[in-house]
Every structure is written in structure tokens, then in C-alpha cells.
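TEACHING EXERCISE
Course module: macromolecular assemblies
Task: Read the component lines below, then compare them to the predicted structure of the full complex.
Student: A.B.
Group: 4
Components provided:
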Amino acid sequence: MDKNKEILEILEKDARTTPEEMAKMLRMTVRTVKEAVNKMEKDGLILKYKTILNKEMIRNEHEDVRALIEVRLTPQKNVGFDRLAERIYQFPEVASCYLMSGTYDLLVVVEGKSIHTVSRFVAEKLSPMENVRGTVTHFILKKYKEDGDILKQPERSKRPAISL
Amino acid sequence: MKKRIIKTVEEMPPSGIRVFFDLVLGMKDVVSLGVGEPDFVTPWNIRESAIYALEEGYTSYTSNKGLIELREAVSNYLKRKYGMEYDPEDEILITVGTSEAFDLAFRAMVTRGDKVLIPTPSYVSYGPITSLCGGKPVYVPTTPEGHFKVDPKDINRLCDKKTKLMLLNYPNNPTGASYSKSELKDISKVILKHDLLMISDEIYCDLTYDFNHVPFPTLPHMKERTLYINGFSKTYAMTGWRIGYAAGPKDIIAAMTKIHQYTMLCASIISQMAALEALKNGERSMYEMKREYKRRREFVIYRLNEIGLPCHKPEGAFYALPSIKGTGLSSMEFSSRLLKEKKVAVVPGTAFGPTGEGLIRISYASSMDKLKEAFIRMEEFLKGLKK
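Instructor-supplied answer key:
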């Protein structure tokens, strides 16, 4: 595996890993690690570093709600879906946006303060848009696992602390 | 009163280490570098297949040798991975962990007066099992200077007419040492010269970092005199399932099967079903794990040398065996004080035989976070000693 890929694998698991630690793990100099990371940041391979919160445990009354919205579109000449997708994903309410195969075209993940805010976004912004042929909205009730992370308190290891 | 316990058992090393282990297990919030098993639970697909097996009512005995499907899967795996040919009918035996495989192998091949060559420091069970069979363990010392590799000259020197068998475990617990093909060839020549049998314990084969693992039976003329032992514990994080296997010449497998059928009968069917799933669909998680271990190894070796516990780079498994001689403490003193003063658990080298004095075993089957923390504490401990 090349060193850049290894750096990405390490950072994807734990973004707090320091260049010094990575240098030790990968037998590189601290400087080369720093240069490689800088270059990947500049090239956009690394977009940013953020903390994954367990939103199932951080419960408060102003909790955001999330909805998955299926959007059917009429594609435009020359640009297909890309231009339409761009018009949609620019809205700050949109957390994710994917072009899909199957019975609909875009899957838009929308986040809002309440069911009403999300509904209003769909009714006022999304549905009236030209070329949007229809939408189906699914609200998320509970999150069990998100992007590989299980949203539970980590279980204590059942492994004895010493064995031969 | 008649003597209740036989002499061989009374004389077995009582594992003074037990006391130390109890101390560790009784203590809370220990950062542990003392484990001999992977730091994650068995992959879900494997666990799920066992649950399914139970639901389907797989709760019976199996054939003594193990499920034929599993023996076939083992046979295919050995062929695909290493080009080794073993007939699932009569050259493979499924055992209750590799531990049972050793027990059977020694009981089938070692009797009163036979000498068995065992490299040391070594995993704890080989010597005592040899003694239980009436055999005499002959320890072949390996040293930090020699990167804990067996020197064929030592085998030559220690062999006599009574020497029947040699045991080799690579990648090694506790030293992490492994062997390249040419190093193994040199050993095989001596084995041939003295007409010895070989038991090759290759349970850590998938954790070889710097070169491809070479199984002992693939060396010229070695297949007919080697019993190959492997299992699922380390590669697929299945230590608690107790499932392993032996592959070897028909006569040896037949003899082992005889003992196995009268003592163990068969390995648990649920574990066998799970092992089958591991062989079918376990490879991806294995490669990911190996990359992770390799990075931990580099980190651990760097840090050990940095804090003043010299250690060469081991080629496999997830162990390092650094020297603590510079501290002037014995292995047991070092480990006990480190545990009491800094709550870091390591295994004293003497757990692996007298040649382990002056050494401690560090396991890097712990998360990077824990490793980092453990090294900060060890560094403080060492600084405290110097004052």
C-alpha cells in the first residue's frame, strides 16, 4: 500500500493522529508526512477534519431532524442532472445529495430544526423548482449506525487484561 | 496414604506467573500490553453464522475428524494460499484449538526417553506436554542478539540418538521472530540429517510483515516429516471458540485421530460452522487488520528503543520482547512495579522459560490510543527508576 493511502487510512480512523506519530508508524520523517498531508489538503483529497458526535446520545429539545427525500427530475439538455443537483445542494439545509439509479433521481438528505422546517423546505423550495417532477419525504426516526459508526456507548472489552 | 498426584505433574512449573496474573486481573483500569489475543471481537459475519447454525439446530456431534465441509475448506485454503496438498479425507484433523493439536501430536509421537527440541523463550505448553508423555524437552536457546532465531548449528549440537522431534513456532509467541525461506531451508537440512520429525506451529502465519510466510511442509522433503498446525484464533479473532486443525502425513493424522476420538470426540459443531464461514468470507477483515498491526509494530519498536528498552524489529505476530537489563531489575520485579506504580500490564519474560529473564513481552494487540498511553506511562516509570 502506498504511503499516501496509509496516511489517509490512519487519518480517516483518527484525525487526531499527529505527524510525529504517523512518522513512527510508517517509518517516514516527520517532514515528509507533513508535506504529504499538506499536499493532500491542497489537492482536496482531504477536505477537512471534524469530530463525529453521537447524536443519539446528545439529546436536547432543539434537536435537528433529518429526512431522506427522493426527488424525481426532468434532465436538462447537455448538462443532464448536474446543474439541477447543484441548484439543490447549494441550500444549506441539504446535508447530502446523491444521484441514484432506480425509480427516482436524486436522494437529498435534509436537516432542519423540526418536521415543520423540513416540510416547509420541501414545499417552498424543492417541489416548486422547475424540472422537479415529484418528491417523497422520509423522516428518520432513530439512528443506529452512521457511516460505519455504531451510535451506542462503546462496550467495555470483555477480554482479560493478560493472557499468554 | 497413597500418593495422589503423579510426579510429572507435581514437578511441572507451577507458573509463579499465576500470582502475577491474578494481580493484574484483580486490578482496575489497567492499560494492558499483556494480551495474547487480538483486540477485537470475532467479525460479525462469523458470529452471525454461528447464531444461524444454532437456529438451524446444528447441535450434534460431528465426525471425529471434523465436518467434511470444513476439512475440505481447510484443504482448499492451504492449496490456494500456499500450494500445499492435503487430502481432506485422511490428512486433516479439526481440533479444539491448536492446543489440543499439540497435545494429540505429542501423545502420538513422544514416549519415555524421547527427546524433543524446543526453541526458547517459547509459548508455555510445549515443554510440559513433552514431560507428560515421558519425553525430555531439550531447549534450544534463542537470543536477542540473534533476533531470537534458532541457529541450525545449535540443533546439530543438541541432537543425539534419542532426539526424535523438533517443535518450531513461527511467527513466534513471545519473540515475534519469523524465518525467511532460506533460513528455513537451513533448518530443514539439519532436520533431515538427524532424521527428526517436525511439529510446525504456524498459528500466526497471517501476521508476517516483511516477507511472505513460508510453511514448513513446503520445503524440500519436509512434507512427509512435518505436522502442520494452524487455527482460527489469531487470524479471525476467534480465541474463545477453541478451533484449530492439524494437517500432516496419514499415519500421524490417523494416530492423533485415535486419541482425539477417545478423549475429545470432536470439536464443537458451532465453532466448526463458524470456522467454515471464516474461511469462506474472512479475508478482507484479515488484510485490514494486518496493515493496522504493522503500523502498531513500527510505532512500538520505535518507542521502545526511544525510551531505552532496546528491541530489534520482530517479523511477525503481535509481540515484541525488549530487554530490560539496563534497569537492573528482574523481569518479574520490573513487571510488578510497572503494574503497581503505573498500572501498565506486561508479561515477564520468565513466563516463557528461564531464557526470558531480562526480557518483557509487549503485545501490540491493543488500540493505538492505548499503546500511546502505555508508552507515556512506561517512560515515566523508567525516568523514576533512574532517580
